[in-house]
Specification:
The protein has 420 residues and is α/β, with parallel strands linked by helices. The chain is built from 20 helices and 14 strands. The protein folds into two domains: 197 residues, D-Maltodextrin-Binding Protein, domain 2 (3-Layer(aba) Sandwich), CATH 3.40.190.10; 206 residues, D-Maltodextrin-Binding Protein, domain 2 (3-Layer(aba) Sandwich), CATH 3.40.190.10. The chain binds beta-D-galactopyranose. It is found in: Periplasm.
Amino acid sequence: MNLRKTILATSVAISALATASFAHAEPTAEVLHWWTSGGEAKAVAALKEDFEAHGGKWVDSPVAGGGGDAAMTVLRSRVLSGDAPAAVQLKGPAIQDWAEQGALADLNDVAEKEGWDKVLPPAIQAVMKYEGDYVAVPVNIHRVDWIWANPELLAKVGATAVPTTWDEFNTLADKLKAAGITPVAHGGQPWQDATIFETVVLGVGGPEFFQKALVDLDEDALKSDTMKAVFDQMRKIRGYVDPDFSGRDWNLATAMIMNGDAAMQIMGDWAKGEFLAAGKVPGKDFLCAPTPSEHGYLFNTDSFAMFKVSGDDKIEGQKLLAELIVGEKFQETFNLLKGSIPARLGVPMDKFDECAVKSEADLKAAQDVGGFLPSMAHGMALRGHLSGAIVDVVTAHFNSDMSSDEAVERLVEAIELAKD
Ligand code: GAL
């Protein structure tokens, strides 16, 4: 064989090899997420297992930190350095933000093949699509406005159920405090302060007020006497937490309920994932009940957005992951562990516990009365700079002796500045 022929033969062989490796590209996905607590880790492990069982290679990139602030910082630096992870836990308007910047890959071919338009509720589709294209996939519906309670501690002051009005809540908390029991388990981190705050906005102001104040950012609502009453209630709650609350992780606050160190925690139903991971039984070892409100429901849908990456293995990985996530079986398995309910329509609820069943029923009831509202504290209602402005004021108030009047003034100012 002359040299020319040898070179040609070699290059044909190489390209055959390349084609073969293309055909066998191992679907690979680096997954950036913040699910590191006991319950969260079990849930994300179910996703990993499902992906691997379907031939995928999972590259785990966890960034610890409840609520995801730290994960979002890592994401920004990864994208800036041209090294975006393939799949990223991302939510609400942040999906639109990244899509606007041209960072997200579209998943329309998987969506069409799998009929997502038929199996996802329209409200959730709207969050997952950018200009009509699917750029993210939902894993769940978490409810934020919950109270998790230790029934034995409640019984010590004669209570058999979780309070259904904020006045009852305060009366019970005063009794617990007098009995030497910490009424509220809380972790003093801005997103946790904001989680309590938004449930109080919902309860004290009602769903319509919540919409005006925390979704529409209506100035009259923000500076209203109702908002002052919200901060008054926040001040009360500040008096119900233990002296060591500052900086505590949310799952450690949940552990306080399990261990009998505190009576109630206001937290989304990822807290239920912690109870379940510890083998606790709802209705027996712990109680779940919505925070007081008139048929409100604050929803928080976790989702994964697929960033633009190159390499067939990665693109195949994104498609496989997206397909599995929306699949019926995964939506059941994952949500049983995570504490949430499926985002996909029609998933049987027979294996779910009483808290999840209540969540689903309340969701429907809330939708009927305009009470189904996006969580501000968990990035579903507003773009980051706007929710950040609110959260800063809420935290500054919670951690000082700022009056409700001043908090409201600061809130209005902060929103004005952030809007510019
Ligand atoms: C939320 C997220 C939940 C849970 C929680 C605590 O924002 O939606 O899935 O992980 O943070 O980390």
